[in-house]
Amino acid sequence: MLQIKNLYASINDKEILKGLNLEVKPGEIHAIMGPNGTGKSTLANVITGRDSYEITAGSIDFLDKDLLELAPDERARLGIFLAFQYPVEIPGVTTTNFMKAAINERRRHHDEEPMKAKEFLTLMKEKMALVEIDQTFMSRSLNEGFSGGEKKRNEIFQMAMLEPKLAILDETDSGLDIDALKIVSNGVNQLRNEDNAFIIITHYQRLLDYIVPDFVHVMYDGRIVKSGDKHLALELEAKGYDWIKEEIEA
Which one of 118, 162, 175, 181 has the largest count of C-beta atoms within 10 Å of its C-beta? Predict the structure, then answer.
């Protein structure tokens, strides 16, 4: 599904990614962990096409297409979704209207008719129940006045509505209390299937108690330096990231 080879990327002439390699297949969940400043969020932004980054070497292929040749909106229509670390507020645009526009734009890309109102409302109610969002949220401006946990739930709701092929969760667990964490995790687990994949960026092992990854990767200094299964996350929790640094320098 996703193949990243020898990827180098910089911002403001500062190199962030330094030869990163990653392969994600359908049905897989990959967790990416690592200390602050190592390039985890940069990786998410580069995959989704944020234009402030310069790709200096390497390739990113998604569903046999060269992502580096596509604009951010084209990548989204292909089925790539990013749940932001800090979801933005959009005053004046209700969540309902935002989702209707997003879904119909995706359908247009696939030469499908716009979703009928009754079908859209039925789908929306089904997905709202998945992440326990109250109906009143749908008439409010997107994320405006939402708590941190409500914003993260809303991101998972959007993901559920759009059913992306590849979902990237950039520190979705940041700032969540245990109840919100369980709700968000349950949403991801119910959406997982053999045709989609997830990249979960996190600092902490606790999220992986609820979303069990197939692979755990440790990023350090702009590249993946160690990979394993869920037990690697537990080892990181016990030993800290200094252990990885010591291994690299040994």
Answer: 181
Q: Which helix (H) or strand (E) holds 56?
A: strand 54-62
pTM (2 d.p.): 0.89
In this structure, are residues 62 and 2 in contact, taking their beta carbons and an 8 Å threshold?
yes
pLDDT tens per residue, range 72-118 = 999 998 999 998 777 777 888 888 888 899 899 888 888 889 999 89
Paired tokens of 21: 């390699």
CA distance 163 to 103: 10
**pLDDT score, position 167:** 95
The predicted structure's pLDDT at residue 187: 83
Whole-angstrom Cα distance, residue 243 to residue 235? 9
Residue type for position 180: A
Q: Contact at 8 Å (CB) between 215 and 231? A: no
The sign of the CA dihedral 180, 184, 44, 38 is positive
Quick check: 188 pLDDT over 70?
A: yes
CATH code, 2-249: 3.40.50.300
The C-alpha atoms of residue 3 and residue 66 are separated, in whole angstroms, by: 10
Pairing of strands 166-170, 215-220: unpaired
